[in-house]
Amino acid sequence: MVSGATGYVAGWLVKKLLEEGITVHAAVRSPDNKEKTGHLDLMAGETPGMIKYFKADLLSSGSYKDAMKGCELVFHTASPFTTHVDDPQKELIEPAVKGTINVLECVNNTPSVKRVVLTSSCAAIYTDAIDTINAPGGRITEDVWNTTASIDYQPYSLSKTLAEKKAWEIAGAQNQWDLVVINPSLVLGPPLNPKSTTSESFSILKQFGDGTMKWGAPKMGVGLVDVRDVAEAHFRAGFMPASNGRYITAAHSTDFLEMAKALHKKFGENYPLPKKAIPKWLLMLVGPMVNPLFSRKFIKNNINVPWRADNSKVKKELNMDFRPMVETLNDSFRVMVAEGAI
Ligand code: NAP
Fold first, then answer.
1. N or C: which end of the chain has fewer CB within 10 A?
2. 95 lines ligand 1 (CB under 6 A)
3. Given pLDDT bands bounded at 50, 70 and 90, which one contains residue 207?
């Protein structure tokens, strides 16, 4: 079973499962909405696997019961992924935490389930780039938990932290199934449903392409990973018997300016991509007026601050290697251009 099968990350996971000839129980909010499921149907038609849809909502208790009936493996990817909210408690925290409880209570009542793979995030480990360099050893590892997010500051990160903690608590109270957690950094790469170019992941590329950043890009430290590699890590976490614990799934330590520069070779002539860094002092001055998320605190803790993480566990235990950053960025930008999103 895959919760949130309509999502950007889940799409590539469902594809992989179908290619392997597996029957996928897709638990989604709107099984009849072809704009959301059309790409999954198309893949099912071209692969040996099968897809069956089940209507389920994170906030409706017991609603994943039918979807996971007879399944051995549950991938729980569904969670609201947005930074633009009016009521973070209602729009982020409740669906993330109650949804995790809801899915895992259904798992507890479904004896066929032996393993749950949860899509958490590096956001459950850190809030600001400065947290990564302040971590023991100067980089985040799977031992680190986010202690700096709050309902008022980066509530999405808080939602992922609380949801993952709850998952470990529920997993620790039983021995029917084991929990494996994937913690991706910022995910980019081509979406299988072209409509996903509206997803939060793509907002930064949109700003590179539409001229918003033509005067400069913030050197904001981030981790980056390709959506196809994130799906592969989920698949391996599900099927490799020895996989265990959390996996930081981040391929590259980079920043927004470096990402923009990687696009220059293929797209620099036709799009007003940023070429230089926007100075931190200037951001301090205008940032909070341009975008309320760019508060002084955020700028201080992220701009010109490198992002450091140890990704050796996922490489070693799940035998992962990652696509080059330029491939991820070019493939993403190409889809956005084709879809008229830029
Ligand atoms: P996405 O495309 O927005 O997918 C989110 C999924 O969650 C969608 O399928 C959505 O369903 C579902 N969902 C949201 N609220 C729901 C609710 N109340 N009930 C049922 N389903 C609900 O974003 P994504 O990037 O693929 O995110 C997937 C997972 O990866 C999330 O757990 C996210 O936190 C995590 N993650 C993402 C990134 C990234 O950079 N993209 C990085 C780290 C972790 P609908 O289609 O019906 O809206």
1. C
2. yes
3. very high
Confidence of residue 117 (pLDDT cuts 50, 70, 90): very high
Indicate if the pLDDT at residue 266 is higher than 80. Answer: yes
77 lines ligand 1 (CB under 6 A): yes
Ligand 1 center to residue 53 CA distance, Å? 17
Among protein residues, the one with the nearest Cα to ligand 1's atom 4 is 7
How confident is the model over 33-46, as pLDDT tens digits?
A: 999 999 999 999 99
DSSP, residue by residue, 115-184: EEEEE--GGGT-SSHHHHHHSGGGSB-TT----S--SSS-HHHHHHHHHHHHHHHHHHT-SS-EEEEEEE
- Tell me how far the alpha carbon of residue 3 lies from the centroid of ligand 1, in angstroms: 9
Domain spans of the chain, in order of start: 2-338
When the candidates are 3.30.420.40, 1.10.3720.10, 2.40.40.20, 3.40.50.720, the CATH number that belongs to 2-338 is: 3.40.50.720
Which of 294 and 257 is assigned the larger pLDDT? 257
